[in-house]
Fold each of these.
Amino acid sequence: MKRLVILISGRGSNMEAIVKACAAEGWPAEVAAVISNRPDAGGLQFAAAHGIATAVVDHKAYASREAFDAELFTLLAMCTPSSWLARMPSYKDQVAANPELATYGFLGYPLLQAADILLYKPAGVPVGEDQAAHVEVTREVARRFNRLYAEGAPVFAEPQALLTETARVPGLDGQKMSKSLDNAIAMRDEPEVTAAKIRTMPTDPQRVRRTDAGDPARCPVWPLHQIYTDDTTRAACEAGCRTATQGCLDCKQPLIEAIQREQAPWRERAAALDPQQVKWTLELGTERARAVARKTLREVRGVMGLVT
C-alpha cells in the first residue's frame, strides 16, 4: 500500500526527513503528509522512489484552525456559576488594582483556560504555584459538567496540578517571574545578558553602604540562591551578608555562575534543532491534538443533546 506523507512547508520540503518524523511519531503508514504549494524536486523524487503518494495543497487554507477551545468555552459557560470565576485570586487582585479590567472577557478567562485543558482530557497539568487555583477551578468545572450531563459515564477527568520541587520562581524584582512584568531571566539568555540582569537586581534595602550588615530574608536575590546554589555557597553568602564582610556583587557572582551553568545545555540543544524539523513536529502534534479535540467535542455535544 502506498503511503501519503503530510508535510506543511512554504519553502519546499525534505520528504525523507518528514517520513522519518512520521515514523518516530508512530503515525500509521496510511497517514503522513501533504506537501505545500511549493514542494521541492528532491522531496518528490524521494517520495516516488519509496512508493509514497503526494498531494499539493494550499498552505494558507490548511493553516486555518477550527476554534475548538472557543466552542467548548461557550458550552462550559452555560453551566459554570459566575461566582466561581469572580472569586479567583488573580481576578480579584487585578480588578482591585485596575477597575477597568472588570469585563466579561477577563472574568471568563479562567474558564477559557479550563476549556484549553479539558479539551484534551489530561490527567495532570504542569503549572507553577500561582496557577494552581486555575487548575482547581478546572476540576470544579469538570465535576459540575459531569454531574449535570454525564453522571455515571463522565466525559471529563479531573486533572491534577503537577508542581515541581520549585513551584514558584521569583523574578528579578522579588515578585513572581513573568515576561509580562519584564522581570524574567529567559531560558536561552546569553551568559552576558543573564549576568547583567542579576547584577542590577535590588538587594536588602536596609544595606545602604558596603559596611552595613544585611539580612538575606529581605533580599530579592536570596530566593534565587535557594533554588540554584549549593549549601556551601549559600552559607558563605549568608555569613558575608550578615557580617558585612561580603558585598552584594560578591554575593551575586556565584548565583550568576550557577544559573549560567543551568542555561548552557538548553542553549546547546536549541542551537542543534533544525527549524524546519521543529515546524514539522508542531504540525504533527497539532494534527494529533485536533483529533482528540474533535472527539471530545462530539462527546460534549452528545451528552448536552446538541447533536444534529
Amino acid sequence: MTQKEKEELRNLPSNSPRLLNQTQLAAALGVTMAFTSAMKKWGCPFPGGRILIKDALAWLKANPEFRPYKERKSPTGPHGIPDIGYGIVPENYNSYVVDNVSAVASRDAQRAAQQVLRTDAIPASVSAGAALHAAAQLLANCNSRAALAIFSGRTSIV
C-alpha cells in the first residue's frame, strides 16, 4: 500500500460506505495490522474479509475490555524475554518521551540481570536486565552521560 493510499484511507469519513479489508482498516484507523488482527481474533465480524469503518468503531465501542497487545497473561516475544518485545506495548506508553528503541539478545539480558544481582544485590528479572543492557548500550554508543531506564508495571522501557 502506497503512502498516498494510506493518507486517502486516513481521511475517509467514519460513515463511508466503502468496505475495507484488515490492512485498509488499519490504515483508516491509524493502527497496526496486529491491532486489526487482534480485533478479528476477539470476535469483530469481517464478513467476506471486509468491514465498514462505522461497524469497526461500533465494535470497539461495544468491547471496552478489548486489549490488542495483552492477549496472554505473560506475553513473551520470540526471544524468550518475558513481558517485553515487539508488539507488547504498555498501557501508559507515551511515544512523545521515547527517543530510542534498542534490541537486546536474550543472553545479554540474562547476563545484565545476573550482574546487577552480583554487584548490587538487587534481584532483577530478565526483562529488567534487557532494559539495563539497553541503557548501557545507549551510554556506550553515544555522547550521552546519562540514560534513564523506566520500569513500568511488567514491561521495561529504555
Amino acid sequence: MRSRSIKSVPPQYTQGCFLPAAKTRNTEVTRLQRPLVTDHLADILRFTALLVVTFVAFTASWQVAGPAPVSDGALVTSPDAAPRAEPAGRGVTRAELSGRALVLTLGLPVTVVDGGGAVSFRAPRGASVADALDLAGVAVGPLDRVEARDAAAVASGDVIKVVRVVETVTTVEEPIPFAVATVADSSLIVGRSFAVTPGAPGAALNTYRVRTVDGAVAERTLVGSVELRASVPELRHVGTRPAPVPSEIESLIRGAAASWGADPDQLLRVAWCESRYNPAAYNASSGTSGLFQFMPRTWAVNSARAGYGGASVFDPVANANVAAFMFGQGQARQWACK
C-alpha cells in the first residue's frame, strides 16, 4: 500500500496533538502547536499563584486566632478562642462571632489617660501595660505613678491612668510676722487700746520642696530658711476700766449688790462684759439673755431661789438681783467674765 502523507490528514484530527516538527513538512501544524503550549503554561502559573495566596492568608488567620505567647514561653489561650471553635455548643450568634473576629483582627480597645488627656487605641492580645504605654507613645518618669488593673496583660476596655508627679525646689522671700505684747492700762475703757511701739514684720529667704501631681501642688515642705531681717515686736496698751454706766443701771446693780452682799464693782464689770449694760441683750447662738446673760435653765432655777420665780429674764431688776444672789453665794465662776 502507498503510505499516506501527513499532509493528507484533516485539520480537525491534528488540533491538540503534538507532532514532531522535524517529521513534517507542513509548517501550518507547527504554528498551531505554539499557542497551545503557551496557554498551558499560563494556567499552571495562575494555579500556583492561587495556592501561594491561599497559604499566606491561612497562615495569617491562624496566627491571629491562635493562642498568644506570654513572657515565660507558655501559651495563653484567648477567652474568645473557645466560642470561635465551638459556637454551636454555646448558642453563639453569627453577629457575636463576627464581632469577636473583628476584635481578634484589630486588637483590644484600650484607653490611656495621661495628665487629663485620653488616648484610645487597640493593643494586641497579650500586651502588657508597658507595651500599651509604648504603643500610645507615653513615657513614664521615675516619680510618675501608673494606675491600671492588676493583671499580666491588658484586657478589652482597660483604662490605664498615668499620674504625673514632679518635684521641684524653689526659694522665695517671705515676711516674718511680729509678736504683740500687751500691757493692762486702767486709764483706758475696756475695748480700747493703742500701740506704744508699732510692730514691723521681718523677712526670710525660705526654700521649699514642692511636689505637684498632674499639675496641682500636693505637698510643700520647708527644707531651709535664712533670716534676712528680724521682726520688731509691738507693744500695745489695753484698757481695763469699765465703760461709763447709765445712771439707772448703775444704781440698780449697786442696790442689788448691797442686798445680797456681793461686790458691786465686780457686778458692774461682768454686766458690761456680758451685755454692755443692755437689759434686752440676747445671744442667738448660745441662748443667753438679759443684763447678765443667763442661760434658760440657770435662770429658771436661780430666779426661784432668789424670790423672782416667774419673772422675765429681760427684767433688769430681777436679772440684777438674781445675779447678785448667785455672786453672794460664791457662784461667780459660772460667768466667763470676771
Amino acid sequence: MNSNKTYPGIRERTEAFFIDGILEIIVLIAIAKILQFFPTADESYRILLCLSFVGLYDPIATSFFGCTVGQYIKKMHVRQVHNENAKILFILAIVRFVLKISLGSISYFTIPRDKKNRAIHDYCAGSVVVFR
C-alpha cells in the first residue's frame, strides 16, 4: 500500500453529494413530467416511483458502477476498505446510504481524524472513498 496515497476529504465528498442532489432533483422533475402523460396513474404509484429512485440511486450506483455521478465527476470511487480495487456489495451500499442520510453531517465527523478519511457510514459498511 502506498503510504503517500491521498483520500477525498470533506470538501470533495460534499461537492459530490451536492452534484448528486442536483441530479436527483432533475430526474425527479423529469419523472413528474413523464407521469403527466398518465393521468390515471394512482398517486401511491407516483410516490413509490420517486421514493424508489431517491432510495436506490446511490446504492445501485456505488455497488454496480463504483460511484455515483457526483463521485465520478469529482474523480472518486467507493471501494471495499480491505481491497480498494473491489466495489462494495449492494447490501452494504444500502447500509452505507441509510446511515449517510440518517446521520447527515454527523457522519463526516470522523473524516479529519482517519488516515483514509473514512466517515462513520464508511466504517459501518466496510468502505472507503478513493480517488481514481
